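Task card 7
Instruction: Convert sequence to structure tokens.
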Amino acid sequence: MLSTDEYIEQTFFFESFLESLDDGITAQEFLYSIRGELLATTQLHKAVDFMLTDVRYTGVLTNSMSRLNHYFSPFQSFVISESERDNGRLDFRIALQILAHEAKYRSGNCSIQGIFFYQFETICRNRLGYVRGLDVLINDDIYDNYWKEWLTILRRQIGFVPLADMIFYRSEYYKIKNRHKKINFNTPNKTSQNINNITNINSTSNNLTNDQIETNETDNTDKENTNDAIDYSKIDQKIDQLNVAENAAGDGQEVVTLFGEREGRIAFATRDKEPSYLFSALSRHLGYPSVPHSKPAAEDENILPILKRRIEQLENRIQILEEEQRGGIDLNRYIKK
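Output:
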């Protein structure tokens, strides 16, 4: 991670970039003008100089940010690249808000768990693709080897095993409930698969290619959470099978805890629910940042621009009619020289 001053300057940079777009200022003009406002003691002004030179030739920010991988994180470059795609779903303004909120969170008392939840919620909410998004997180140096191992497992099993269950099994709250043998899920009876199926799912998912995983990811996006892969009534008798199924300790070692008690408690309370409820609860109780999303504009806000365009169209039509009455329309102005 960078220093606190760097993230404060990044927050100011992305917020100012967003305001310049609302004022109709181009990216080149903004990058040229923002250099003087950045602190000379940070490295951001050097990065902006490099970005300005690259934007003048390519017109996009993706190439320059990906080359500055020692300064910008892989997640930041990934978000900008998704917003600049021709067929992408992420708006560029929303991308700037996402990066501004993340930089602001990193400048304070951030935690690795909070950064993961924010980045993963960004991938889920904006439908950026689990495979490509988790590959970016795996290559991020902010996560240690234990986190990268678990992210690799998450990449294989996402869509097969609920996210809340995977977080719960890697939390301190799971160890507390397992230690005191007081697990009581009280879930309604439903047609759910036995926990032993997770082992088969894990072995099957290991043989899937990236294209097959992407296909499963697209199919699972429009479906409701119907793959209840955990039989909660038998979980206290199936702890050993669960550890093997999650593949977190292939040599029989103890499962490494990645989440605290409060994260595990919230994940336990939001099982069999939409993932958005999990992210919302984490934001309310633990203060983790929420991912910004676009809001549909009200009809009243669109009246003035629509009227303005219609008046311009009427003026052009009236001008053409006046020219026709004078003796003809001059078509030379419509021909590109």
